[in-house]
Amino acid sequence: MSDLKKLKKPIEGHLKEFQKVFRKTAKSKIYLLDIITKYILKSKGKQIRPLFVIYGASLFNNVTTSTYRAASLIELMHTATVVHDDIVDDSMQRRGRFSINALWKNKVAVLVGDYLLSRGMLLALENKDYHLLEIVSKAVKDMSEGELLQIEKARKLDISEEIYYEIIRQKTASLLASCFATGAASAGVDNVEVNKMHKIGELAGLAFQIKDDLFDFQKTSITGKPTGIDIKEKKMTLPLIHLLNNSISAEKRKMINIVKRHNNDRKKVEWLMDKVNNSGGMEYAENKMNQFKDEAISLLREFPENQARNALEELVVYSIERKK
User: Fold this and answer.
1) What is the dihedral of CA 49, 52, 56, 61, to 10 degrees?
2) What value does the CA radius of gyration of the chain take, rounded to a whole number of Å?
3) What is the pLDDT at residue 253?
4) CATH number for the 3-320 domain, one of 1.20.120.1200, 1.10.600.10, 1.20.80.10, 1.10.3880.10?
5) pLDDT of amino acid 224
6) Looking at 158-167, 198-207, 226-235, which range is the least confident one?
7) pTM assigned to the model
8) For 250-266, what is each residue's pLDDT tens digit?
9) Average pLDDT rounded to a whole number, residues 43-62
10) What is the pLDDT of residue 1?
11) Cβ contacts of residue 269 below 8 Å, gap of 6+?
């Protein structure tokens, strides 16, 4: 049995209840829309976010119907942003399956994303879950701002380590933070504990994104070479930022020029990838990742120990130590 299956087993009943709420909310009387939402549901991945929400409520021994709505709200909002992201990135695939825009074109995909966003908001409003809607809406706002900040900085590539952390805090960590926070909020705890849970999720999310960035510089089993996708997309990640911060001006200009103007030149990108791997940039990023992970776990351990706390800790470690 995989680690994830073990973590799902104690809350199987809660996960089934969440699935009922999620499927019912996503359903539509419009035939085309219903076909597309069913396709989306079939292609859902590991669904780690609902686990964080449910265990977040279990930490306070109070999983409620509001918890299932919180998990559904996050999944609806997240799925909507993924559908829209695939349009922006012109992605034809998502987890090995065709994206919505690849099968039904951009106009339909935009409308499907809008529909999922509205269903999430209505689910919260109809049940007067205003506190949950506020947490998740702030996360969606942060995700949009993070994407735009990254686009803005990609023009000049003037990304400091501090700006990098702000980008990934908004783009990635904000959603995981909302999982922890809505789980706690759905259990009816006070704002102090909700905010503390939000911070734990944010720290775990920062570590999660750094792990994601490290994959780009690691050799793949297929080619035996790093993918370099982030460099091709002009994304400045922590291993590269560390290299630039520790390079002389002439070398730094050469590297930035490769990212800006020669990011499709395979040999130049490979040269830059080798520089990153030989500069200590990977080790530096791994240390930062572990620092954020340890901070998250340390904060989590301030809550009384129970099965849910241990599961949350295992989930944090699992999401950061994953192989892909």
Assistant:
1) 110
2) 20
3) 86
4) 1.10.600.10
5) 43
6) 226-235
7) 0.90
8) 888 888 888 888 877 88
9) 89
10) 43
11) 228, 231, 232, 258, 262, 263
Model pLDDT, residue 228: 62
- 148, two tokens: 């735009």
Mean of all residue pLDDT scores within the chain: 89
Instruction: Determine the Cα–Cα distance for residues 187 and 190; give it in Å rounded to an integer.
Output: 9
Sequence-separated (6 or more) residues with CB below 8 Å from residue 105: none
Place 89 in a pLDDT band, splitting at 50, 70 and 90. confident
**Over the chain, what HEC string results?**
CCHHHHHHHHHHHHHHHHHHHHHHHHCCCCHHHHHHHHHHHHCCCCCHHHHHHHHHHHCCCCCCHHHHHHHHHHHHHHHHHHHHHHHHCCCCEECCEECHHHHHHHHHHHHHHHHHHHHHHHHHHHCCCHHHHHHHHHHHHHHHHHHHHHHHHHHHCCCCHHHHHHHHHHHHHHHHHHHHHHHHHHCCCCHHHHHHHHHHHHHHHHHHHHHHHHHCCCCCCCCCCCCCHHHHCCCCCHHHHHHHHCCCHHHHHHHHHHHHHCCCCHHHHHHHHHHHHHCCHHHHHHHHHHHHHHHHHHHHCCCCCCHHHHHHHHHHHHHHCCCC
Name the CA dihedral angle for 286, 289, 295, 301, rounded to a multiple of 10 degrees: -90
Q: Where are the domains of the chain?
A: 3-320
The stretch 142-167 carries a mean pLDDT of 87
